[in-house]
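Note to self: keep these together.
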Amino acid sequence: MKYKPSYCLTLCLTRILTLSFVMGECYILSSWNKCSHLKKVDKINITSYRLFTHLYQHIAALAFAVKETNDNQQLLPNVTLGFHIYNNRFTEIGTYLAAMELLSRRRRLAANYKCETENLPAAVISGPITDYCLHLATILCIYKIPQLIFGTSPVVNNDAQDIFLHRMFPNIDCQYDGILQLLLHFNWKWIGVVCLKDDTGEGFVQNVLPTFALKGICFHFIARLPKYAFTDGFDEFVEESYKIITVAMGSTANVIVVYGESPTIMVIRMMVYAAEIRDTPLEISTKVWVMTAQMEFAMISFVRDWDIDFLHGSVSFEIHSKALSGFKSFLQTRDPLSAKKDKFLWTFWEEVFNCDLPNPSLDKKGNMFCTGKEKLEHLPTSVFEMTMTSHSYSIYNAVYAVAHSLQAIHSFKLKHRAPPNGAGEQLWNIHPWQLNQFLRRIAFNNSAGEEVSFDQNGELLGGFDIINWVIFPNQSFVKIKVGRMEHQAPVDKRFIIQDDAIVWPSIFNQALPFSRCNNKCRFGFSKRKKEGEQFCCYDCIPCPEGKISNCTDADECFECPGYQYPNNDKDGCLPKEIIFLTFEEPLGIILAVFALKFSLITVFILGIFMKYRATSIVKANNRNLTYILLTSLLLSFLCALLFIGQPGKVTCLLQQTAFSVIFSVALSSILAKTITVILAFIATKPGSRIRRWMGKKLAYSIVLSCSLFQAAVSIAWLVTSPPFPDLDMYSVTQAIVLKCNEGSGGMRYALLGFMGFLALVSLTLAFLARKLPDSFNEAKFIAFSMLVFCSVWLCFIPTYLSTKGKNMVAVEIFSILASSFGLLSCIFSPKCYIILLKPELNSKKQLRKKRN
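Structure:
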């Protein structure tokens, strides 16, 4: 007879409490399974627990995978794969008991004692509760039995244990990053957090939430779910649940992240029930629940009629999965009447259809009998899902991972060891630790075409699907894939989501839910933190003058580029206009007209003095100095025209230098006139030695020396740091001023300082000489003219510094015109009056008369 060994997988389904389980009967599912014995566990009160109907799909997925591997003769030829199922009864003790029974002989709990070598467990599939998987690992690693976990991977600090753990769950950090990307994508910065009250929940709060905070996520509340309580302490459970749900529903956060495990949705449903029995109506459907991949929809009989509307529009993460052809048909062929040994199916069938299957050994009265023709697909999905869930998909892949590893071991032995005749049994004499080595390196494609493999840490290589829950009035639901988080994908393609495909809770009317501490700051405003509040809570303050913000929730306002200026709403920048004082604008026209008018007046006065050059008034106080003064005043009026129009290289070079040199000539001429008056008076005294200083040479030397000094400074300025055309972008808010950059401010101030010195000396000397006896004392008019000149330029300094843009040029032009015209009018108007209107006074006789 041909040798046909069988290997048994052990499935440790945590928190499956069917009637069969609690009675201590763990039946093998079908006739194709050759591990046809059963395990006994202690009996407990069967009224204390109920069946989680969704977990039958896990059992069915296991059976479906085993059936496929046994039917596939190319995968494991002449080998039958079977399995045992153990129950941990909600407790750590039950978990350890299941592990010890696995390691004991049949029908008797005797640890580390086996009398049979057949049907040795090749591996253990456990999950989905993290703590119980860790308890199993403590025992199984001693015997080097590999454990495939289809829930969240426990954190194992012992490398000796970790090496035997194979996680049918992708890297958990990928899921955390996916949740963070989801929150940031929808701009949900103000959230609530509900997590388990255990080590895994605290680890999530301590290690994961701080990374969320670094990305700008704030937490209005962090609540811990109470321990699952279905029997003892139910009142305390209800009380604690009521407090949590009240906080959650009273929160201003519209998004709640739930970190839980398989039964967590069941607990949330009980929390809602806790509020209902308190007659506290809560709008629980106003929140968007974001759930982790460890969670799955759980249902027990006494909550069957409870609403699940709060899940409508929720978003959850699930291990990436694909539909398996044949699984739905496999479920549809389940017939409890033809599979009487399948006590799981019997108990499940009676639970979901609320009927009793005919059993002659039991006297059942008062209940409706099942016909066996009921259809699973007619059940609401809240009772049972016909579509394979992600956890069931992981169980299916775990079975195939073991099967492919067994095949790899068999192929390895055939290749490296030629078996003698009759040694086929030795080829299949495989120890669990040998299987463990191949599991880490296994890679295969399942029947859905998905590649299954593990990384160096024993974690499944894969990603997560993003699921949107849509709830229907009949308490059915459909889970729609709307995105994906792929850890191995490029950075820009790791997180993918279809916004338009998501159905939001009804209260949001299909608009994107808003979940922030306060409304966004509009354009033109910036954020300011509220004292005593979290950083997500802030006030919105308008941008200060000259700054803008062109985005919502701006951290601070900023200035526009130099060529732009803020608009009135301070939410954008407008292009600045380039401005300068032109001949076309009114101000430029007025100044130009006055400059030309004053120039003509000066020419007129110069003409009068030249016409009447032989008269006494013209000859008095040095006629040539008068001509020099009038000419410089004429040039000063014309110099003002250099400041009007678009600044160019030539005009910038000439503006300040020509102005300073011309004014120096005028002031030095006035100074020479004043000194001439004083010396003329002193020279008339007997014995005065000043007479030899009298004459034209003194006057010319004063004018020439002062003018040459100013010209030398101007040339030095032009050589070292000449003025040049420049753009002033900041002095005027809405315009760019085209102006002449001085190049060296020190040089300009040196020129102005020297002119000021000449003006003060002239004013002082003229003031002292104003009462000297003379037929026509010009010192009086020079004193008054210099007083006007100094007053104009003293007023110029604060006015110029407080003016911006092209108005600065206008102020300087006005000062040039005003001071020049002050000199012209104060000095020459009295003389012109005598020459033109009082000619009788313009004679030597009259001058001698006045002098005497």
